[in-house]
Design brief:
The complex is a heterodimer. Chain A is mainly alpha-helical. Chain A has 13 helices and no strands. Chain A has one domain. Chain A is 76% helix and 0% strand. In chain A, helix 1 packs across helix 2, helix 2 packs across helix 11 and helix 4 runs antiparallel to helix 5. The N and C termini of chain A lie far apart (38 Å). Chain B is of the alpha/beta class. Chain B folds into two domains: 142 residues, 3-Layer(aba) Sandwich (Rossmann fold); 30 residues, no CATH class. In chain B, the strands form two sheets. Chain B has a five-stranded parallel β-sheet with strand order 2-1-3-4-5. Classes of the chains: A mainly alpha, B alpha/beta. Chains A and B meet through helix 3 of A and loops of B.
């Protein structure tokens, strides 16, 4: 019972945590550009304001898919926090992303279609790497469960540092940060799939973005799982790294992103898998 | 603690250039840059009409851009305010009377705040947007007010005639 309390609380307050992370990120990004930046609670102000706006929907399926994207992402996060199967978590995350892609295709807006195409391509870029990392974890700990990482004797970082490198390579793709933010590309396709959402339905997409932060940084935390300080240090490092990269780099196009992911990040993850297998035998 | 009081803390701006010379646009972008940094008030330059609150228009309305201007205005969900930025957008400026331009955006959409200057200085733009926020607050309150009908619907030839009621409602807001 006591062991369940922390994960359940984390699941319940995950959007809150993600909102704080997003607000903190906006401040950090502003400070990196020598600006003051918005207040810490700015994402929540946005949230409350969006609830007041008039509700405009393109059609009901579109709005429904947006809300289901949020709910399925939260479900994936719940499975991850409760120590579930890593492969299941990755595929639940894929399910939520594919709902978003479907909602992008369900309207007639050309920007929405472009955004959906690009989101699908970015899924193609990060998904194989994540699965290879999960397989390496299975070979190391003997189980796909994320709970097994916590009970493993050493932090994962010391056992498979290359997997962490591969994860750092795909984090900007997953979080839609420069240089790999083709899926969102605010100056180019004005947000992509989230273009046609407005008011309270955009809120679902906006909050799902916060949940994505929690999801990604939890994956980072798993690499230092059995030492909380080390896990937190890794999360802070990944946070600063992603934001510094976001501020200092320009957007690459989707071909370059795909080439980088499949030619650099995927081989790194694969080499890590081979080393893990050879190391054990 | 009233949750409603937070809503003017996150105005999202949509910036549209209706055929101006880009002078005002550069000043608007200077507002986002480190020196003026309007993001500290929670303002974001969204570029998506469906999620924005404030329409910031520069330039006299050229005949090519007026349809887009009206369309963008129609796509924004209420409550919304319009700020005309610079003398071209307010009156037509030096382009007034030319064959390809209209004199100012208020011929096509209702404008709430006029910001003068050619090009408008960033301080003025920020001041105009802050004034627009007060108007946004007022408009939101008006939207929340319930409208009471004073006239009974009239039956004409077996159908309800709602024209009188509509006339009554249109008079009400703003008092």
């Amino acid at each position: 019972m006591n062991g369940l309390l922390v994960p359940v609380l984390l699941i319940l307050f995950a959007p809150l945590l993600g909102g704080l992370a997003y607000g903190f990120e906006r401040i950090i990004r502003a400070r990196m550009q020598r600006r003051t930046g918005p207040p810490l609670l700015q994402p929540f102000y946005d949230f409350l304001k969006l609830a007041d706006k008039r509700k405009m929907i393109v059609h009901s399926t579109h709005a429904f898919l947006g809300i289901m994207h949020f709910l399925s992402l939260w479900f994936a996060l719940a499975v991850l926090f409760l120590g579930g199967d890593l492969i299941l978590v990755i595929f639940l995350h894929l399910l939520s992303t594919s709902l978003l892609i479907l909602s992008g295709y369900s309207t007639r807006s050309i920007f929405s279609h472009l955004g959906a195409n690009r989101t699908a391509i970015s899924v193609l870029a990060y998904e194989p790497v994540l699965i290879l990392i999960a397989v390496s974890v299975f070979i190391l700990t003997g189980s796909f469960d994320s709970a097994s990482i916590f009970s493993y004797s050493q932090p994962l970082l010391f056992k498979m540092p290359l997997a962490f490198v591969a994860l750092l390579m795909i984090l900007p793709i997953k979080l839609k940060k420069s240089p790999f933010d083709v899926a969102e590309a605010h100056q180019e396709i004005t947000g992509g799939v989230e273009l046609e959402f407005s008011g309270i339905f955009f809120e679902a997409i906006y909050t799902a973005k916060w949940l994505d932060y929690v999801f990604c940084y939890t994956l980072v935390y798993l690499f230092g799982a059995n030492n909380p300080f080390m896990g937190l240090a890794l999360v802070i490092f990944a946070f600063l790294y992603v934001n510094a990269l976001d501020n200092s780099s320009a957007r690459v196009n989707y071909k370059q992103m795909l080439r980088f992911s499949l030619m650099v990040a995927l081989p790194v993850a694969f080499i890590n898998l081979l080393i893990t297998i050879l190391h054990l035998s | 603690m009233k949750l409603n009081s937070f809503r003017k803390k996150s105005p999202w701006i949509l910036h549209y250039n209706a055929g101006g010379c880009n002078g005002c646009d550069i000043e608007i972008l200077a507002c986002l840059a480190p020196k003026y940094d309007i993001e500290r008030f929670g303002m974001i330059n969204t570029g998506n009409p469906k999620q924005s609150d404030i329409l910031l228009v520069t330039g006299p309305v050229t005949k090519r851009s007026r349809e887009r201007l009206v369309e963008i205005y129609a796509q924004m969900p209420e409550p919304k305010v319009v700020v005309s930025c610079g003398s071209c957008a307010s009156t037509g400026g030096i382009f007034r009377g030319m064959y390809n331009c209209e004199g100012g955006i208020d011929q096509y959409i209702p404008v709430d705040v006029y910001v003068c200057g050619c090009g408008a200085r960033p301080e003025q733009i920020i001041d105009g947007v802050v004034q627009a926020l007060a108007i946004l607050e007022k408009k939101t309150k008006e939207l929340e007010q319930s409208v009471r009908l004073k006239k009974e619907p009239v039956m004409e030839g077996g159908q309800l005639n709602r024209r009188n009621i509509a006339g009554e409602i249109i008079k009400l807001p703003g008092q």
